[in-house]
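Re: beginner question about structure tokens

> Can someone show what the tokenized structure looks like for a real chain? I only ever see the sequence side.

Sure, here's an example I had lying around. Input first:
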Amino acid sequence: MASPDNAVDRLKATYDWGGLAVQGWVYSHLDLDAQILDVGAGWGKYRDLLPDYENMDAVEIWDPYVESESLAARYRQVYTMDVADMHPHLMGIYDVVIFGNVLEHLKQQDAFDVLDRCFQALVIVPFLFEQGEEQGNPYEAHLQPDLTMDVMERRYPMLRLEGVEIRDGHPFKGFYLKEGAWEREDG
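And the corresponding structure tokens:
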């Protein structure tokens, strides 16, 4: 999702179902000194939702967001890069990695590999959601618009479904958790 245009839309997008699900999980499972990585930080949604966590870093591929949203002043460290290019050791230093509406923007193999590098991850994804470039940002395009609960289970067996947002009687978003090391069945 592109950066909201006004304060009301920003509040709605920050305190949405997915944001509140991640916020609740983090506050109930992690100490305040936990090391957190926010992937696809955008406007800093999870920084706003988790203000008590000082050891919070961000990955943001779109440099204009880093500048316009003052991410460097809000996070301990900001990595302006594609998360798929992040060194596996660096991913491993975090107690939890947050992928809030990010997985659908990654190629399937990149998403799998990045999740595989995380010890613990929180993932929010929209289901069956087509999206192209937004506000001139080509990285806003959904490369996996076909995600559903069944597709997520097949593609990302290391994730466990924690909750589903229902809109108009249909699954709209899913909240997934990856905990600990994961063993591939293929060896």
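Each token stands for a local structural state, so reading them left to right follows the chain. Residues 127 and 147 are 5 Å apart (CA to CA).
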